[in-house]
User: Fold this.
Amino acid sequence: MDTKQEDRRIRRTKKLLKSGFASLMKEKEFKDIRVKDITDLVDLNRGTFYLHYNDTYDLLEKIENEVLDDFQTMIDTYCPQVGGHSILPVITPIVNYIVDNLEVCRVLFQNKTSNDFWQKFQQLVRKNGVSMIQMTYPNYNQEYLDYFFSFVTTGILGLIKEWFDTDMRLPKNELVTVSDKLISAAASILNKSSV
Assistant:
């Protein structure tokens, strides 16, 4: 059997399961979603689900980790292009990714089902943001750093949630620009000479 064909089928199956799960998350509370609900919706048997995931918690965790890994890859790819006070080169591909993976991202950003995603997202922003702050503001005020990252990550999550809640009426490029300006303005407080 051709392993490429098998890999494609596995990817397709996982995509179906994730999509079905995301659809159900719009209708039900996470705790009320059973494996059978997902497999019935996407017309697969439960055995197929269990080939890839232990249960719905495992599926949710794998979705979260996959999205965060994709964000990290984009940060690694575009971060070297960041210069000055703008992080547009990083924000733009992430917002594009969110739009391209709307169903899954909407579930993760709008639902408080798993605080793990929010905490992991905050860790991701902080881990990558410290080096950006050090490059942009070499004499940054260390006392304010934790406050800054709490403010920025909560703000980013709030912006994305608001965007979803308003049916994404704000054009994508405006969301990117507003995000960049807000983050840059908040970061300027870290400059010791501005305090």
